[in-house]
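Task: sequence design from structure.
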């Protein structure tokens, strides 16, 4: 089994070597800037780790992993726009709309999303693309809840906006590994718990979201319960889930 660091290195190499559509022309630097902004590449690494744990070749999952990272990058570019979160910085650099202008940021985000589906469609089966499409719709729906105002179910918002792409990271890895739909629920439950815990940790670090709405004590309790459920779920899967457990450990280590 490859370690999470080895899988992350594979993701970086694959992303760096991606050939984008020549039709993008002068927009390609915008796309590259958004994609090269750093980050832990957690979603693609989760995809590769799942594929290998499920008995597949993680190298065969690299296009799916890259597609997940492109969708994630698309969401960040659009989230930072003045019409949404209006953030001037992302990971210590000027956000895309500040660096290139608002129109270029919108088009760059569109290009990232389209290139993601071009990667997903390289597989001989449509299930990877379908997994990605469902997750992207959920993520967009969650963003709508976030900006629309009025009463919101924070748990549902987080499940959609953050959780869906983590679930898809596990799902794409399973499809590439050839795991039948009927055998996927335990894996998917872990993906859902992982995504929920990720957002809880972020909320606790930022004193935002659930931590602000329900208080830190309740948010910490939810995080502990979710971690325990995720660990129990991994233990029930008949496979070597060591690296998935390692990713969970890394996530828990960030919790304040």
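Answer:
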């Amino acid at each position: 089994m490859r370690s999470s660091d080895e899988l992350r290195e594979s993701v970086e190499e694959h992303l760096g070597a991606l050939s984008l559509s020549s039709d993008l022309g002068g927009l390609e630097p915008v796309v590259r800037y958004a994609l090269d902004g750093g980050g832990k590449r957690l979603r693609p690494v989760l995809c590769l780790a799942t594929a290998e744990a499920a008995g597949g070749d993680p190298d065969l999952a690299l296009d799916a992993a890259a597609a997940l990272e492109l969708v994630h990058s698309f969401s960040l570019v659009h989230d930072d726009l003045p019409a949404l979160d209006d953030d001037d910085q992302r990971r210590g650099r000027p956000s895309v709309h500040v660096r290139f202008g608002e129109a270029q940021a919108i088009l760059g985000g569109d290009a990232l999303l389209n290139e993601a589906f071009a990667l997903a469609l390289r597989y001989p089966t449509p299930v990877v693309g379908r997994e990605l499409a469902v997750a992207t719709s959920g993520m967009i729906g969650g963003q709508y809840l976030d900006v629309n105002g009025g009463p919101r179910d924070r748990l549902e918002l987080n499940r959609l906006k953050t959780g869906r792409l983590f679930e898809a990271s596990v799902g794409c890895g399973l499809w590439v590994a050839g795991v039948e739909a009927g055998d996927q629920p335990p894996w998917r439950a872990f993906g859902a718990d992982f995504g929920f815990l990720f957002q809880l940790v972020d909320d606790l670090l930022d004193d935002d979201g659930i931590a602000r709405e329900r208080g830190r004590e309740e948010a910490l309790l939810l995080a502990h319960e979710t971690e325990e459920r995720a660990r129990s779920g991994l233990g029930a899967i008949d496979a070597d889930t060591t690296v998935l457990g390692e990713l969970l450990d890394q996530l828990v280590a960030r919790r304040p």
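The radius of gyration is 18 Å.
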